[in-house]
Design brief:
This protein is α+β, with helices and mostly antiparallel strands. It has 7 helices and 9 strands, in the order ββααββαβαβαββαβα. It has one domain: Gcn5-related N-acetyltransferase (GNAT) (Aminopeptidase), CATH 3.40.630. A 9-stranded mixed sheet has the order 7-8-6-5-4-3-2-1-9, with helices on both faces.
């Protein structure tokens, strides 16, 4: 692939078990299929946006369109890096890193999901650690924030292992009902203190300007 006009396709994050990269059409189709096979118990909704509601082909199409939309809608002032996560060459989930006015605020937000078959193996911690390394070590972030429903113990557990601290509560509406969210915040010092995953980054220099740095 010629990367002259969109060098983000050449960005690679690697951990001991994972590779994260912006998916082209073929990899994106695999990612959509993982989502179609389920990412959570259908009886509960762990996401603030209920994007997994619908038939499998509808969920797959929503993932495909979302990732393409992040590329089409990218700007230096408001960007979402939506990375496919690969384990042993197989797509297992998605890790997002988001920045709004990042050049000024130096703050990022994360979001992610794993296919049901790949949960419970510590991959969620490893993939978010990769995104945080890109943010802090690669882009010079000062803060990372996240949020999860108060009963989403897996997501909250990942945040705690990586050093996040509580940052208050918020209320959202999901499936027409109110839900309570726990906000979390990670500063650079706590990220440094809790680093436990080796991460390497390839291809960042070619796309720094697109992040506003």
């Amino acid at each position: 692939m010629d990367l002259r006009h969109w060098p983000l396709y050449g960005l690679r994050l690697r951990t001991p078990r994972l590779e994260l990269r912006l998916p082209g059409p073929g990899l994106l189709d695999e990612l959509a299929s993982v989502a179609a096979h389920g990412v959570h118990d259908p009886d509960r909704m762990p996401f603030s946006v209920a994007w997994t509601d619908g038939k499998p082909d509808e969920v797959a199409r929503a993932v495909f369109q979302h990732v393409l939309g992040t590329v089409a809608g990218w700007s230096v002032r408001d960007w979402t890096l939506s990375l496919a996560v690969l384990h042993e060459g197989e797509v297992v989930g998605r890790q997002d890193l988001m920045g709004r006015d990042f050049a000024v605020r130096r703050q990022v937000e994360t979001g992610s999901w794993l296919g049901l078959a790949h949960q419970g193996q510590g991959l969620g911690t490893e993939m978010r650690a990769a995104a945080l390394h890109l943010a802090f070590a690669g882009l010079g972030a000062r803060y990372a924030v996240s949020a999860a429903m108060t009963d989403n113990l897996r997501s909250l557990g990942v945040s705690r292992r990586l050093g996040y601290v509580d940052d208050g509560l918020d209320t959202d509406v999901v499936r027409g009902a109110p839900v309570m969210l726990r906000r979390l915040r990670l500063d650079r010092a706590r990220w440094e203190a809790h680093r436990s995953v080796d991460v390497s980054v390839e291809g960042l220099d070619a796309c720094r300007e697109q992040f506003g740095v």
